[in-house]
TrEMBL record:
<keyword id="KW-0472">Membrane</keyword>
<dbReference type="InterPro" id="IPR050277">
    <property type="entry name" value="Sodium:Solute_Symporter"/>
</dbReference>
<dbReference type="GO" id="GO:0015293">
    <property type="term" value="F:symporter activity"/>
</dbReference>
<dbReference type="InterPro" id="IPR019899">
    <property type="entry name" value="Na/solute_symporter_VC_2705"/>
</dbReference>
<feature type="transmembrane region" description="Helical">
    <location>
        <begin position="282"/>
        <end position="303"/>
    </location>
</feature>
<dbReference type="Pfam" id="PF00474">
    <property type="entry name" value="SSF"/>
</dbReference>
<feature type="transmembrane region" description="Helical">
    <location>
        <begin position="522"/>
        <end position="546"/>
    </location>
</feature>
<dbReference type="InterPro" id="IPR038377">
    <property type="entry name" value="Na/Glc_symporter_sf"/>
</dbReference>
<feature type="transmembrane region" description="Helical">
    <location>
        <begin position="77"/>
        <end position="95"/>
    </location>
</feature>
<feature type="transmembrane region" description="Helical">
    <location>
        <begin position="452"/>
        <end position="472"/>
    </location>
</feature>
<feature type="transmembrane region" description="Helical">
    <location>
        <begin position="428"/>
        <end position="446"/>
    </location>
</feature>
<keyword id="KW-0769">Symport</keyword>
<keyword id="KW-0812">Transmembrane</keyword>
<feature type="transmembrane region" description="Helical">
    <location>
        <begin position="248"/>
        <end position="270"/>
    </location>
</feature>
<feature type="transmembrane region" description="Helical">
    <location>
        <begin position="115"/>
        <end position="133"/>
    </location>
</feature>
<dbReference type="GO" id="GO:0005886">
    <property type="term" value="C:plasma membrane"/>
</dbReference>
<feature type="transmembrane region" description="Helical">
    <location>
        <begin position="484"/>
        <end position="502"/>
    </location>
</feature>
Length: 576
């Protein structure tokens, strides 16, 4: 069966499943729309959280980043998984015990201020919109290749799918849809990895295959990859740090704090029945996430090796452009892979020297999706990867858009502007806000600022510098005041945004950018996407400093903080 026909069938079947689930689990109340009625089993919620979490950045972009960055790309693996430990231990149980619908609602109540709630909404929208741009980029990339259309058309198709099941089902529909999407994306990610590992190393376990010898050889796979990339002028794959050790530490910590502070992840823990279920959900989510995250380094290394050997089938003898393989031609159509014959010799020259490199466009985001084609796997595997990539991007986009819509309808409209509106009116407002958020995210997705993982990393930095410190201080300090919290959030996110915009021309350095050394005016050599940890330090410092010179919180607020930390049962979500 032709690849396009098979792709239509596989992707169409998964979309039909998602839409059927949305129709079956349509939200009929605000409690179901916001927190799925707070009745989701911890294992099911863990699976849904994993799908919500493993976005286009994880499925499509992360392995592509590691493929071109090597060891330096490990910041994503360590940061994005380590953050779940912080979330499970320090935030999720306490926020679930408080029992409200949204993160800004908790911040508004804890810091006894509608102003604090409004600032939290502002920070949430900035973080979520930045994050959702990366998802829209992933949707556009996946649809453009596998539906054989241009990027803009692919993005429009994806927007329509998200609109239908997210607006209809709310959190209830999204939760059950994400469970199905997790099953699709994890099979789509691991099955090609198993086949490729078998082909290259005769080992069916990709995690072990990465450290094994090549089939029919005594050479380790990673040693071979190091040799190929260094021969072409690139830095060694297995040891090259991400610009500097300090930058790698800051980047990892920024991603960890951002993970624990992202509202669309936190609200998933409001959907379980009890406090202990929140911590259990985080454990299950980490287990489900680990299946993909431990596979990603193997996918990255093997994809880079296959890519290099395809471009130069015989070492030292570049491939003739006329003889380029079919996968190369397929991705050229999307505009995400481009060749320009500088010296007009008809050969595809690829290397670290920008003066002679003729691969003028190699989008990191294509590596995972192109990997089965490069390896020559069967069409059904390629079609499965298409469905998995779309499931990853759609699941996270839906969760982010729900967080944005909840902030607009519940925190701004219901919480501050029109508190007397009925539940039916609030539900309608939520759906309208969701539709507006999808339209806005799609508009930004047509002109994304970078590849998916780079844009998403920025969103984590913004969450780390604004929301995470406010939540930590709100739970564990009785002394932080509303003035301190507001000043801290504004200072943290402002410092981070200013640093990012100051260096927007060099937002993200990768091994394919040929930028060489880091810019001299970076703060201690910390790149913009890793600056969230500095913003977090600023947030904490300003908040505590301002709190020392302002009146302490009222007694009832201090009692509230103490009660949140007492390990007893939780009220139902939506009550307190």
């Amino acid at each position: 069966m032709p690849l396009q026909t098979l792709t239509y069938l596989v992707v169409g079947a998964t979309f039909a499943l998602y839409i059927a689930i949305a129709l079956w689990s349509r939200a009929g109340s605000t409690r179901e729309f916001y927190v799925a009625g707070a009745g989701i089993h911890p294992i099911a919620n863990g699976m849904a959280t994993a799908a919500d979490w493993m976005s286009a950045a994880s499925f499509i972009s992360m392995a592509g980043m590691i493929a071109f960055m090597g060891y330096g790309g490990s910041v994503f693996l360590m940061g994005w998984t380590g953050g779940f430990v912080i979330l499970a231990m320090l935030l999720a149980p306490y926020l679930r015990k408080y029992g409200k619908f949204t993160v800004p609602e908790f911040i508004g109540d804890r810091f006894y201020s509608k102003g604090a709630r409004a600032v939290a909404v502002l920070c949430l929208i900035i973080c979520s919109v930045t994050y959702v741009i990366g998802q829209m980029k992933g949707i556009g990339v996946a649809f453009s290749r596998f539906l054989e259309v241009d990027y803009s058309t692919g993005l429009l198709v994806g927007m329509c799918i998200v609109f239908f099941y997210a607006v209809l089902g709310g959190m209830k529909g999204i939760t059950y849809t994400q469970i199905a999407q997790y099953c699709v994306l994890i099979f789509a990610y691991t099955i090609p990895a198993i086949f490729i590992s078998l082909n290259l190393t005769n080992n069916p376990i990709p995690q072990l295959g990465l450290g094994s010898t090549l089939a029919g050889s005594d050479t380790l796979l990673l040693d071979k990859l190091d040799q190929i990339v260094t021969d072409l002028g690139f830095r060694e794959y297995t040891t090259d740090v991400r610009l500097s050790t300090l930058n790698m530490f800051a980047f990892t910590l920024s991603l960890m704090l951002g993970t624990a502070g992202l509202p669309h992840v936190i609200i998933r823990f409001f959907t379980v029945p009890r406090v202990r279920d929140a911590r259990s959900s985080a454990g299950w989510a980490l287990l489900f996430i680990a299946i993909l995250y431990t596979t990603a380094p193997a996918v990255a290394g093997m994809a880079r090796l296959n890519f290099m050997q395809t471009i130069e089938p015989v070492p030292g003898e570049p491939m003739a452009y006329e003889q380029r393989p079919q996968w190369f031609k397929n991705w050229e159509v999307t505009g995400l892979l481009g060749f320009e014959d500088h010296n007009e010799d008809g050969l595809v020259q690829y290397g670290a020297d920008p003066a002679t490199n003729e691969m003028v466009t190699i989008d990191n985001d294509i590596m995972v999706l192109a990997n089965p084609e490069i390896a020559g796997l069967p069409n059904w595997v390629i079609a499965l990867v298409a469905a998995g990539g779309l499931a990853a991007a759609l699941s996270t986009a839906a969760g982010l858009l729900l967080a944005i819509a909840s902030a607009i309808s519940h925190d701004i409209l219901k919480g501050m502007i029109a508190p007397a509106i009925s539940e039916k009116q609030e539900l309608l407002a939520s759906r309208l806000a969701m539709a507006a958020a999808i339209a806005g995210a799609g508009y930004l997705g047509f002109n994304p600022p970078g590849f998916a993982a780079g844009t998403v990393a920025l969103a984590f930095g913004l969450a780390a510098s604004s929301i995470f410190p406010a939540l930590m201080m709100g739970i564990f300090s009785t002394r932080v005041t509303r003035e301190g919290a507001i000043a801290g959030m504004l200072a943290g996110i402002s410092v981070t945004l200013c640093y990012v915009f100051q260096h927007q021309g060099v937002m993200f350095v990768s091994s394919t950018s040929f930028l060489g050394d880091m810019p001299a005016n970076w703060f201690f050599g910390i790149e913009p996407n890793a600056f969230g940890v500095v913003g977090a330090v600023v947030n904490f410092t300003v908040a505590f400093a301002v709190s020392r010179i302002t009146a302490p919180p009222p007694a009832q607020v201090r009692d509230l903080v103490e009660s949140i930390r007492v390990p007893t049962g939780a009220p139902a979500a939506g009550t307190h």
